[in-house]
Design a protein that fits this description.
mainly alpha; Four Helix Bundle (Hemerythrin (Met), subunit A)
């Protein structure tokens, strides 16, 4: 199976296209690190961190929903996030990946990306990148511009983690 192709990032583009292109690139970069692995491999950590590729997929699916639907539009968190016992485990978004199949993890991440993109499109139709979130975070209201840049930052940071974890599993580099 060949990896999901990386999307093109145009060298010249308007602000929305540029930011969304980088976000799409890093979304696929993470996905490629998980493709072709077994459930056991997706649940393998690289010591001393407990972080796993499955946990990264789950966490970033949560991040997509949290920022693009919950914070940006004020919607209730989607399932499974709404039903999780966050008080018992504040890192449940990471830990819920254990025991899930690669197909389940990739499908959940893909669905979160589709829903997030639809939420971003709705916000862009209001006031573009200057659209303000419906909910405050840390006492401030973020713009859609900030949310998109934060998503790029979140994916880029975790893509480095995914590179190291994948290399420790099967030696694969350069995905």
């Amino acid at each position: 199976m060949s990896p999901t192709p990386l999307p093109e990032i145009p060298f010249v583009a308007d602000e929305v296209t540029a930011v969304r292109s980088f976000l799409a690139f890093y979304r696929v970069t993470l996905r490629r690190q998980a493709e072709g692995l077994t459930a056991e491999q997706l649940d393998r950590a690289l010591a001393p961190s407990p972080m796993t590729l499955g946990g990264l997929l789950s966490h970033l699916a949560f991040v997509e929903d949290y920022w693009c639907s919950h914070v940006l539009h004020g919607a209730e968190p989607a399932e499974p996030w709404r039903s999780l016992d966050w008080a018992a485990d504040p890192d449940r978004d990471w830990h819920r990946a254990a025991g899930q199949t690669p197909e389940q993890l990739l499908a959940a991440h893909d669905a979160a990306v589709v829903a997030a993109d639809a939420a971003i499109d709705r916000a862009l139709a209001v006031k573009g990148l200057d659209t303000l979130a419906a909910l405050e975070r840390h006492g401030s209201v973020a713009s859609l511009r900030w949310i998109l840049l934060h998503l790029v930052e979140e994916y880029a940071r975790h893509a480095g983690h995914a590179d190291l974890i994948r290399e420790s599993i099967d030696g694969t580099t350069g995905l």
